[in-house]
Every structure is written in C-alpha cells, then in structure tokens.
Amino acid sequence: MMRTASPAFMQNLRDVVEMTPLLVVLLGLFGGALVLGLLQSFGYAPWFGINEFPTTRYFERLWLSSDFWFSLGLTLYYAFAATLIGLVISVPLSIALSKRFKASRLFSALIRLPLMVPYTVGIALALVMLGNGGLLSRMSAGLGLIDDPSQFVQILKTHGGCGIILVYVWKQVPFMTLNLSAVLARTGDDTVEAAMVLGASSRQIFWRVTLPQIMPGIVSASLICFAFNIGAFEAPLILGGGYPDTLPVLAWRYFQDANYAFQLQGMAVVVSLALVSGLFLAAYLQGYRRFERARGRV
Amino acid sequence: MTQVQLKNLSKVFSGTPAVDAINVDVACGEFLVLLGPSGCGKTTSLRMVCGLEQPTSGSIWFNGQEVTNLPVQKRKVGLVSQRFGLFPHMTVEQNVAFGLSVGGMAESEQKRHVGEMLEIVRLTDFAGRFPAQLSGGQMQRVAIARTLVTRPKVLLLDEPMASLDTLLRAEMRQFIRDLHEEYGMTTLLVTHDQIEAMDLADRIAVMFDGRVAQLAAPDEIYQQPADERTARFMGHSNIFDCTPVSDGYVESLFGPLKLGAGSNRGLKLPRKAMVRYESIRIVESVDQSQSNVVSGTITRAEFLGAMMRYTLQVGEGFLTVEEASSFKRKTGEAVSLTLPPEQIWLLQ
C-alpha cells in the first residue's frame, strides 16, 4: 500500500517551492557574489591570470598601511556623524509631525521632498550652494562679508567632510523621520497624556516616556542609515577632501584601475569594510538587545 | 476633598459641538458617573476637567477656584483611561513611582509610598514585572495605583473597565467602590454601561448629543427617566402611547390604566408611558383588588438564565415581561398580567 505524505510535509514543500525564485536570486546573486568577492580577496582570480589562493597578502598590505586606518577612520566618522546628526534632527521632527497643527500637511510634504530627489542631485545642489564659487560664497561677497568668493570658508573638498555629512543628513532625515513617525503613531498618545496628568514636564516626558518608547524606531532607522553611509561613495568621491579617501572610494579607485590585478586589492578593501561595518552593527544590536532585556521587552 | 463645577461647558470640534453647554456640580467626595452612548461627549467632558482638552466656552471650577486655563500638570487630578497608558518600558514599581519621581520626591519616600500603594492594590508580588507581563485586571490596578499614589484632588476614570471581561469587571467594580469608600475622593467616571453606572454612582448624568439629559440618583433615573431616550438607554422597558383621561387614569392600547401617586400624573397631554419588563407581573388568578389587569397570549419565550423573557400579545399591542425562570411558560399560553400603577411612569 502506498503511503501518502503528511499535510505538514506537503505544506513545507509548497513553502519551499514558492520561495524558490527568491532563494535563487538571493543565493545566486548575493551569496554567489559574496563568495566570489571573498575568494578574490584571498588571491583567487584565475580569469585575470592570478591564483595565489589562499593568501592574506592583500589584507596584510592594506592593514599595515597607515592610510588604510586613516581611510577607515574617515569612513566611520562620516557615517557616525551623519547618522547622529540625522537622528538629532529627526526625533524632534517626528514628534512635531505626530501633532496636528495648521500647516502640518505642508510640513509633512516638505519633509518628504528629499526622499524623491536622487542622491546625485543633492550632491550637485551642495556644489552649487556651498562651493567656493557657489551661491553662498557669492552672496557673502555681494553682502560685503568677504572681499572675494574664494575667501569663503571651505565647506567642500575637505576631510572635515561638512558637505558629505550635509548631503547624507539631507537625504536620510526624511527617511528617519517617517520611520520614527510610524513608531510614534503606533505608540499613541496614551502614555504621554498619562505622564502629563501625573505632573511631568515636557522635558521629563521626552526623556522618560517618548524616547524610550521610540527606541526600536531609532535603532532600525540608524542601523539602515549607518549601513548606507558607510558604503556610499558618490558623495565622498565628489565632495571629499581627496587622498586618502574613504574606503568605498578607495575600493572604487582600485576597481577602476587599468591593471586588473588591483581588483583583488579592491576586494580586500570591500571585505574589510564589510567586516568593520558588520562588527559595529552587531555590537550596536547586541547593546540594544541588552537595553531591551533590561526593560523586559525581549 | 474637592467640589467640581462645570459651568456652561462646551467643546466644538471642526464646527460640530461635542459638548454643548453642560452644567454639572459634583459635591465633595461624590461619585458621579457620566453615562451615555458613544459620541455623546462624556469623554470630551472628562478630558476638559482633566485639562487635556481646552473648552471652546464655559468654565471649570475646583472648590470655587477657576481652573479652566490651568495646565494639566497643575490641576492635581488623577486619570485612569480605557487603555491605562502604562509605560511599557517601566516595571510596575517604576510606573507607580513615576508621578512621585517627576514631582521631585526623595527616592526613599517614593519607595515607601509605592510599597504601601502596591499593597493596597494587591500587587506587591508583581512590583518587578513589566506591563506586558500583566493581565488586564492587574494593569488596571497598576494604573489606579499610579494615580492614587499622587493623592489627586479629583479622580477621573475614563471607561476603565471597557477592556475587561465580564467577571473581571464585577471584581474591579467592587475594587473601585472599596477604594472610593476608603479615600472618599471626588470621582468622575465615564461609561456607556448602565449597570456599571448604577452600581457605582451616587448620581448619574445621562448624556446625549453633548447635553445632559438627566442628572439624578441611579434609582430615580431608572424608575423615573426624564424622557423616552433616557428610559430606553437605562434598561428594557415597554413604552407605549397613552392619553390622560381623568385624574389618575390614562387610556392606552391595552385599555384604561390606573396610575400611581408617583407616576408623573400631573402631565395632561397625550404622551408615552413606560413600564419596565420586570415590573409587570404574570398572575395565576385575578382578584378584584388588583388594578390594571390585562390578558394576553405568549408569542415568544426567551431563556436568559436566571430570568425568562416573554413577549405577549395584549389586545392590539405587545408587552414584554421578565419573570424568574423557575416559572416555565410556553408559547401560545394565555395569561393574565398586572401593570402595578406605581410602576407606570409617564414620560415628558
């Protein structure tokens, strides 16, 4: 007698079949590229006539150079600073958005606007506005604040990275604000009203009631933005201070080199970047989980 | 203890009046219930007393002092809302201590007060738990403890039992009644549940469309409602047209009915009369001393547990009667009924 498969088995099979297209894309494209990148960074690239696998010389060359550590510091600084500034702006904005006032719809639309504008447009706007021949410098000269536009304080093309951070912040504030607004909408007004009735001031309500409740939104928004910032290269390439560059720009330069052998060095940069970024994000998540556990939420 | 007065209090939202010039006086230590269907303005009224909503016009007074423009933080009221508003990231102990802590009380003092309050609400063993780890009833007790520990002048309860199941509601009603007796605090409770209102209130303000339809003691509102809407809202009743024919008598579709001394008999124009389901009695034998005896046939019988509900055809009309379920009667059975004159109430 033939045995029939159990309904649970059939359901599992159906789930796997339904997931197959997604799994193929994920494993084939993302997973495959990841493995290939790793292999290249360890010296495996027979299609370029290089097969030194396994070698760590690309990593050694990179990690033993002081420029690499400067680039890493620069990359982390831009990513951290932009994420932090973005959060400092987005938290009060999201609280303001959760309240109803006369121009709230216009306010909400204005906040969303940068989401619809491509990154490169933001970079171009920064060049037009903040460059030494830009609008602000010309206005300053026109107003007599400086004698010549070239005397305007250098915002772009410096390792201080004001322009880069500004573009990152401009682009990610709407994203963070919308993310936090969604968390605030889910939380509702009950706890804030309860705190008010219990005599808490606006400052006490913010620090002791609102902020802890929107922490999950802060964590997810900052994770996504940090991960993006650490890997972005257009803004540092165009608005950055030049050599030594951030790690994504460094990798890009290796990949653009006429000598294919440099691709392996580029891969070592990318793998190092992914490693550092992954470590930071994991530590951040671990810290947040501990924070949540202390509050009984996990 | 605090006396609360609402004078011509109104609130308009986008041109629509939510509360329309209500006048309510709550005596010191009184338990007043604002009762009405959804959207009648009872919660808005409570939120105005609390300070969470600013009135469009009118004023609010505590002990003869106007508080209409006083910020919510300075009113010293306590609010327990339907969803409790517990801080999810704080333990029970931290939740209860919140009001004391933001008020700047020393930590040792806070601990003592919180400990005492948790004992009163029987949650000492749950002090270290988070709201998500509590049942609905426990959450409500935390919300009440958090409010009472700050010793508010007025306690405001906004449908605090709405999210609890029937058994827990009865238990919490008893708990709230005990607390009110112990603290003697002026209390305003908002509910749409007439049983809850009658059980807890010293007086009830029945509200419809933003106005107070009747403000009186629970038994008065139940037995002598001001109008048909209040009568229907306060419980099941037979309401039928009648015309006063002579002093103490009305003509109805069930024949002439004698009225009692307290039947609102001064009213002369044709109007409606009300008799509660449970006030009508099915009698086995009729004697001459009984008034308002009518005959009818049972057309429908419903088993309600302790009671049976019968719908009877009486002449051209229908009457509904409730009787203890120990008397089982059948559909189609002919019976005699008496409508006690004292239980007939003419509606305004």
UniProtKB/TrEMBL annotation, chain B:
Q: Which UniProt keywords apply?
A: ATP-binding, Nucleotide-binding, Transport
User: Which SMART domains has this protein been placed in?
Assistant: AAA
Ranges where the ABC transporter domain occurs: 4-234
Claim: rRNA processing is one of the keywords in the record: no
State the source organism's domain of life: Bacteria
Please give the InterPro entries that the UniProt record associates with this protein: AAA+_ATPase, ABC_SmlMolc_Importer, ABC_transporter-like_ATP-bd, ABC_transporter-like_CS, Mo/tungstate-bd_C_term_dom, P-loop_NTPase, Transp-assoc_OB_typ2
Q: Which residues cross the membrane?
A: none
Q: Name one Pfam family in it.
A: TOBE_2
SUPFAM superfamilies associated with the record: MOP-like, P-loop containing nucleoside triphosphate hydrolases
Q: Which family does it belong to?
A: Belongs to the ABC transporter superfamily.
Any idea what this protein is called?
Answer: Polyamine-transporting ATPase
Q: Which organism is it from?
A: Pseudovibrio japonicus
